[in-house]
Structures are given as C-alpha cells and as structure tokens.
Write a structure and sequence with these properties.
By secondary structure, the protein is α/β, with parallel strands linked by helices. It has a single domain, classed as 3-Layer(aba) Sandwich (Rossmann fold), CATH 3.40.50. The chain has seven helices and 14 strands. The strands form four sheets. Strands 1, 4, 5, 6, 9, 12, 13 and 14 form an eight-stranded mixed β-sheet that branches. The chain has a two-stranded antiparallel ribbon with strand order 2-3. Strand 10 and strand 11 form a beta hairpin. Helix 1 runs parallel beside helix 7, helix 3 packs parallel to helix 4 and helix 6 packs across helix 7. It starts with 12 loop residues before the first strand and ends with a helix.
C-alpha cells in the first residue's frame, strides 16, 4: 500500500464516477425533497466543479486528473459514458465544455457578518435520470476496460479511484467478481480504490460511514453485505482525512457508506477525492 505518488500533468490521476440511473433512483433521498437521481447527479457535478477549482492555477486549469462518468440503467441493461467528448476526459477539457450552466443561489456571510443570498453559475456535465433496471455488472465491466487502457499509459501514476453510487442490487448478475478484479488492478503506486455509496431505504437504519466490520451491517440486507465486500480498505491518507473530521475509523475501515443521506453522500465524495489532490505538483 503506497498512494504517495505526486500527481502532475505528466503523471495525472484518474477518477471514475459510476451512477445508478435505474427507476428506483426516482425515490426521494432521505432528508430531502428531491430524488436520489437528482441528488446523486448534483453531488457528482459539484465534486467535478470542486476538482476543477483545485486544479486551477494562474495559467489556467492544469490537467492533474482525467475524469470518466458511467451511467447505468438509463437504457435497459446498458452502461455508457455520460460525457459527450469521450470516455475519459482531461479535466481542463471538462472545465471548458459543460453540458450547460445553471443559475443557483447560496447563502454567504458578508463583511458585516450578515447572512445574504448571492447568485452564481453552476456547471452541469450530466442530467439526473431514473428509468430502467440496474445493470451494475456492465458498469463495472466498462470501468475495468477504461482503467486497463488508462493504466497501460500511466504505470507510475496515483492509482485510479472509482466511486459508485447506487440504491439497489444489480439486475444483470453478481458484481462481486468484477469489482474484486478491479480492486486488484494497480499502478506502481498501489491498487485501484473502489468506493461505494449505498442510498438505501431501510427503515429505522441509521447511516453508517466507513464500517470496519461487516457484522455491524443489517444481516437481512444482502446488498449492504455485498457492497461492503466490494469496497476498498481505506489507505492511511484517507483515514487521516476521516479522522480529522472526527469520524470513527480504523485501519480496517472500508470505503463504503450504508444508508447514505445527502450529508453522507457529499462526505464520501469529498473524502474520496480529497487525498489525491493533496499530492498535486
């Protein structure tokens, strides 16, 4: 386990976001008035925006990262890239070509300490969809093919990070085998990191972030048990970030959040992308 390689334009990192677009994603996400598909799309778009910000220097957006987004379930039994340019896109190209710009408002504190509402433009790279089944196996197969091609050209780069957001079990077979194959892929700096955010609807169950023991998950939720086994053990750099936020983690903690609400979804995405950006050169 390493995960110490400096990220530069010569040796960029790779983020692949995978988002469930099945019909069940039309259900409301706990604690919000919006659907899971809306919140998942918004969270990933927001995270890409944050990554662009971290890569922006005085000379523009530097290509410290390549980005891929896979949607699965929008069309029955298919998984596909959600980016219009290509499967894997340098972050500067992504910054220059959002699907559209959306006007939003946020509350900020002015110099006098008053809370005021301000308007800003928010880039959107893909839209929320909730339509068909959950072909997660095909999505992981596509991610593996992308990682295989990318890693062949970036042998000494920081290992790829894959973040999967889903609320239901795969409808096209067992994803465990292909997920574990992905977690065994590597660069010279370490193995691929696979994160899973589980937007469960289990009543009475509290969100659980980065569990270290499968036994703490509901025994009757087979999907939770499966996703736990499909999630990477957190490397030290990610553990440090989680510990700084007073999260209960240890050396066995997995990159998995069970029964995630909006706060847990955003936290997983932020921690999942934070550690690599501390190595930018």
């Amino acid at each position: 386990m390493s995960y110490t390689s400096e990220i530069s334009r010569r040796n960029p990192g790779l983020f692949i976001f995978m988002v469930d677009q099945s019909r069940s994603m039309s259900h409301k996400l706990g604690g919000t008035l919006r659907s899971k598909s809306q919140e998942a799309a918004d969270a990933i778009n927001r995270q890409i925006y944050e990554l662009i910000y971290r890569c922006t220097k005085t000379d523009g957006v530097r290509d410290y990262f390549d980005i891929g987004i896979i949607g699965y379930g929008a069309v029955a039994d298919t998984a596909a890239s959600l980016l219009k340019e290509a499967d894997i896109v340098p972050i500067s190209k992504l910054a220059a070509s959002p699907l559209r710009m959306e006007k939003r408002t946020e509350k900020v504190t002015d110099p006098d300490g008053n809370e005021v509402e301000t308007e800003f433009e928010f880039p959107v790279w893909f839209e929320p969809v909730a339509n068909s089944n959950t072909p997660m196996v095909k999505a992981f197969q596509l991610a593996k093919a992308w990682i295989d091609d990318w890693s062949a050209e970036h042998r000494d780069s920081y290992p790829p990070v894959v973040i999967n957001i889903s609320d239901g079990a795969a409808t096209d077979g067992d994803p465990m085998k292909i997920a574990r194959e992905i977690m065994e892929m590597s660069t010279s700096d370490g193995k691929v990191l696979l994160w899973n955010c589980h937007l469960s609807e289990l009543k009475g169950a509290k969100p659980l972030a980065f569990p270290a023991d499968q036994a703490v998950l509901p025994r009757d939720d087979k999907f939770a048990q499966q996703l736990f086994g499909m999630s990477s053990v957190l490397p030290d750099s990610f553990l440090s970030i989680a510990q700084e936020r007073s999260l209960d983690v240890n050396s066995n903690s997995r990159a998995y959040v069970f029964n995630a609400g909006l706060d847990e979804l955003l936290e997983l995405l932020d921690i999942g992308t934070r550690a690599p950006t501390e190595n930018l050169q």
